[in-house]
Design goal:
The chain is α/β, with parallel strands linked by helices. It has a single domain, classed as Rossmann fold (3-Layer(aba) Sandwich). It is about 35% helix and about 25% strand. The chain has 6 helices and 9 strands, in the order βββαβαβαααβαβββ. α4 runs antiparallel to α5. The protein is globular. The model has no long low-confidence stretch (mean pLDDT about 95). The structure holds adenosine-5'-diphosphate and magnesium ion. Magnesium ion binds next to α1.
Length: about 220
C-alpha cells in the first residue's frame, strides 16, 4: 500500500487573468522505504507540491491520502493531528521555536506526541547530525547549517511515516550535504518511511529510488 497518495491534485492561486496554476493535475504515490527526489527550477511548484502532500495547504481539486487516512477531507484540527502523527517536515522556513533551546524543542514534541524516539536513539541521531553539543543553545546562536541540521533532527525525532524535506542540504557544505543525505537515506530504509526530498543539487539524486522533475507545475518521472 502506498503511504502517500495524491489523486488528481491541482492547485491554483489567485483568479482571472492573474491566476497561477502552481500544480497541474497530478497523480503521485510513494511507498514504504522509498527515497524520492524532486528537482526543478525556482518557481516550478516544488514547495507547493510538498506542502500539499503534507497537508499544510489544501489542494484546489483532488485528494491526498496519508497512510490510508483521507487528509484532504479532514477538518483542520484532525488534519493537524494526522500531520503530527505521520509527517516529518524539513521546510525552508525554519521550524525552530526561537525562545526554546534545542533540548526544550525536543521535549515539547514529547508533550504533543507519543512514540517519539527513545533517549538512546535520539542521542545517536544528534551525533550523526553533529548537533549533540548544541542541545543547550537557542536557535539564534546557531549557524545556518546547524539550524538546518536541528530542523532535520526535529523532523525525524517523531518517527514519521512520511518525511518531506524542502532543500534540506541547501545551507550545508558539500561533505555535510552528502552526510545528511546518506542519513536521510539510512532512516528511509531502516524505518521504511516514504521520503521526498526537494533539491537543486543533482549530485544528491544518484542515491534516490525515483527522481521526478517539476516544470511549470507539471511533474514528470525521470
Ligand atoms: N501563496 C501563494 N500565492 C500566490 N502564488 C503562489 C503562492 N505560493 C506559490 N505561488 C506561485 O506558485 C508557483 C510555484 O511556487 P513554489 O511552489 O513556491 O515553487 P518552487 O518551490 O519550485 O520554487 C510560483 O509561480 C509561485 O509564485
Ligand atoms: Mg520552494
Amino acid at each position: 500500500m502506498a503511504i502517500l497518495e495524491l489523486n488528481k491534485v491541482r492547485k491554483t492561486f489567485g483568479a482571472g487573468r492573474t491566476q497561477v496554476e502552481a500544480m497541474k493535475q497530478t497523480n503521485f504515490r510513494a511507498e514504504k522505504g522509498e527515497l524520492i527526489a524532486i528537482i526543478g527550477p525556482s518557481g516550478s511548484g516544488k514547495s507547493t507540491f510538498l506542502t500539499i502532500a503534507g497537508g499544510l495547504q489544501t489542494p484546489t481539486e483532488g485528494e491526498v491520502v496519508i497512510n490510508g487516512a483521507p487528509m484532504t477531507r479532514l477538518k483542520e484540527k484532525k488534519r493537524a493531528k494526522l500531520r503530527l502523527k505521520e509527517v516529518g517536515f524539513v521546510l525552508q522556513a525554519s521550524n525552530l521555536v526561537p525562545f526554546l533551546n534545542i533540548q526544550q524543542q525536543m521535549q515539547l514534541l514529547d508533550k504533543v506526541k507519543k512514540d517519539n524516539m527513545k533517549q538512546e536513539e535520539a542521542q545517536q541521531l544528534y551525533q550523526s547530525l553533529g548537533i549533540e553539543h548544541l542541545l543547550g543553545h537557542f536557535p539564534k546562536d546557531l549557524s545556518g547549517g546547524e539550524r538546518q541540521r536541528v530542523a532535520i533532527a526535529k523532523a525525524l525525532y517523531t518517527n514519521p511515516s512520511v518525511i518531506l524535506a524542502d532543500e534540506p542540504t541547501a545551507s550545508l557544505d558539500s561533505d555535510r550535504a552528502f552526510e545528511v543525505m546518506d542519513m536521510i537515506k539510512g532512516i528511509t530504509k531502516e524505518k521504511q518511511t516514504a521520503t521526498i526530498v526537494v533539491t537543486h543539487d543533482t549530485r544528491l539524486i544518484d542515491d534516490c529510488d525515483k527522481v521526478y522533475q517539476i516544470t511549470d507545475g507539471e511533474m514528470t518521472h525521470q
